[in-house]
Write a structure and sequence with these properties.
single chain, Phosphorylase Kinase, domain 1, Transferase(Phosphotransferase), domain 1, five-stranded antiparallel sheet, 12% helix
Length: 558
């Protein structure tokens, strides 16, 4: 069977076959798993893959690249291959497996803490696990490192969850939220500590396996009337903080987060204020800073002002530097060019060192590109021995004198022929697309920005400025182009949400909304007194935000 990933043909044969489940089949090649759906009606939407891609945690085995058939139908997605040695988490419930593998109580505590940290990370990124049952976890052979699987069923900002196992569901509510996730986690964690479901065991008023009514009634194993099976482990093996939390959750119906959540100060806690509401938009204030905002990245909760870079809640006294994060450990690295040399500073770590002559740089998808004339170097950061090591991952050729680096895109002129070069790399793959755009030949390109298959350029020709909007298909083979002539020159101000909706503020202070699809040419234009060019549009997944002066806002269309 031939399939296509990022335009590359992949042959999957019987020797690559791993397993077959209810949705489809799993194949494995090198370090990549390929999930192929048999019933395409069950296929996860492409936009949901995009929303899950922000969950770049080493313990989350998320969908990565879409897989297409030779008829160009979306048939599946790739994932990281876990490798040999991982086991299903439910095995750790039993005394036999624990004894055989020397699993001590402190190892269980560490595993539970690591699971809690991953779930907290999921919640920080506006997603819910919903079906956090024990079969959706795998455990590394160290028995303390969890992996969360079946991620495609999770709830994301734009998509509902698609499954939940009855045994870990909170039957006291019809809604799913962070607390129902923590309830499911509590049930699984309790079984790791004690070896029994907290609503199992014999009770004289309930039939066997009637855990649904026991959850609703708050009749857990903590009740004195419940008789535990002999294999159940001593409750004293449960750490005190967790024992108290389990008692509140299971017996008293309190729905509260677990003790000592990791990284509680990792994000700014703000109160949302309604600032203005019109017939078209509702605007709410999210945060305020001491200085005017120059840049904000919602994915990393990073805000840049004239004299500071704030990551989460922590401000750093930094001027004129860019920030990139190590792909796995998420260590912030300050990047700056000084006297044509690249300089790195790792926050709270030893500074990375490398001797490179650099004339320009660009950060796209948290990938750093350094330019030295005709060489564009894609950088990677690896943490070894407590130190961050920068390495050149790959080198691309660009025009030495006729290439300009803009925002996420390079505009080149090859003997007068306009070519766009678009870096699409992530920390797991390298990708670089060049596309000849003859419609740009007449222009001197002044500014350009690319985001999620949408490119907007400002070009000068015949004494006027034009705005050129280019929308690419998924493979960047085809494109649709629209030209707005004779505009007032200004900053290109647009963002493309993860669901493909592009929002831009025009030179006459109107909002235009369109899709990043070449088969959808319609543009919706809205004129509203609240909209003007001082609003710097940014995205947070499928949520539209903007900053103006020293404040960050959320804007919602009615």
């Amino acid at each position: 069977m031939d399939v296509f990933v990022n335009g590359q043909k992949i042959n999957l044969s019987q020797k690559n076959f791993v397993a077959k489940g209810g949705e489809g089949s799993i194949f494995k090649k090198s370090n990549t798993a390929y999930k192929i759906y048999e019933d395409l009606r069950k296929m996860i939407p492409l936009a949901k893959i995009g929303e899950l891609n922000k969950l770049n945690h080493p313990s989350i085995i998320r969908p990565k690249d879409p897989i297409y058939s030779d008829q160009k139908h979306l048939v599946g997605f790739t994932m990281d291959w876990l490798g040999d040695g991982t086991v299903a988490l439910c095995k750790l419930f039993t005394n036999t497996f624990r004894d055989k593998n020397g699993i001590e109580p402190d190892m269980t505590t560490k595993l539970v803490e690591n699971m809690k940290e991953v779930i907290h990370f999921v919640h920080q990124n506006d997603c819910l696990i919903v079906d956090g049952n024990e079969l959706n976890y795998m455990v590394n052979k160290d028995f303390v490192t969890p992996y969360l699987i079946d991620v495609n069923a999770w709830k994301t900002p734009s998509f509902e969850a698609t499954a939940i196992m009855p045994s870990i569901r909170d039957w006291t509510t019809d809604k799913f939220d962070k607390n129902t996730d923590w309830f499911s986690f509590a049930i699984v964690a309790f079984q790791l500590f004690v070896g029994i479901h907290p609503y199992k065991g014999k009770h004289p008023s309930y039939k066997k396996n009637d855990f649904i009514n026991r959850i609703k009634d708050g009749v857990s194993v903590f009740k004195s009337e419940v008789r535990l099976p002999p294999a159940a482990r001593d409750f004293n093996l449960i750490p005190a903080g967790y024992k108290e939390w389990f008692f509140k959750i299971f017996d008293h119906g309190n729905r509260v987060p677990p003790p000592h959540l990791p990284g509680e100060l990792g994000r700014v806690s703000v109160q949302v204020h309604l600032i203005q509401s019109t017939d078209n938009f509702e605007i709410r204030e999210l945060a305020e800073f001491a200085e005017n905002i120059l840049f904000h990245n919602a994915q990393y909760n990073l805000t840049k002002t004239a004299n500071h870079i704030t990551i989460g809640k922590t401000p750093y006294n930094v001027k004129s530097a860019e920030v990139v994060f190590t792909p796995l450990e998420q260590i912030p690295i300050l990047v700056k060019i000084v006297d044509n040399k690249i300089k790195f500073k790792a926050l709270n770590h030893k500074d990375p060192e490398i001797d490179l002559t650099v004339t320009d740089m660009m950060i796209t998808n948290n990938v750093l590109y350094l330019r030295n004339r005709e060489r564009l170097m894609e950088m990677d950061f690896r943490v070894m021995g407590g130190k961050v090591h920068p390495v050149i991952k790959r080198t691309w050729n660009i025009e030495a004198n006729a290439a300009q680096l803009f925002s996420n895109i390079i505009v080149q002129s090859a003997l007068g022929s306009a070519v766009l070069a678009i870096p699409l790399s992530t920390h797991t793959k390298s990708a670089f697309i060049t596309k000849r755009i003859s419609e740009l030949d007449e222009y001197q390109i002044i500014d350009a920005k690319y985001e999620n298959r949408v490119c907007i350029l400002t070009g000068h020709t015949s004494g006027r400025y034009d705005r050129v909007i280019i929308i690419f298909d998924e493979k960047h083979d085809k494109y649709r182009i629209r030209v707005v002539k004779n505009i007032d020159y200004g900053t290109i101000n647009f963002t493309t949400l993860d669901n493909g909706v592009c929002v831009t503020i025009t030179d006459d202070d109107a909002i235009e909304i369109f899709l990043n699809r070449i088969d959808k040419p319609d543009v919706k234009r809205i004129e509203d007194p609240v909209i003007n060019s001082t609003m710097h549009l940014i995205k947070d997944g499928t949520t539209l935000k903007f900053f103006r002066d020293n404040k960050l806002y959320k804007i919602k269309m009615k």
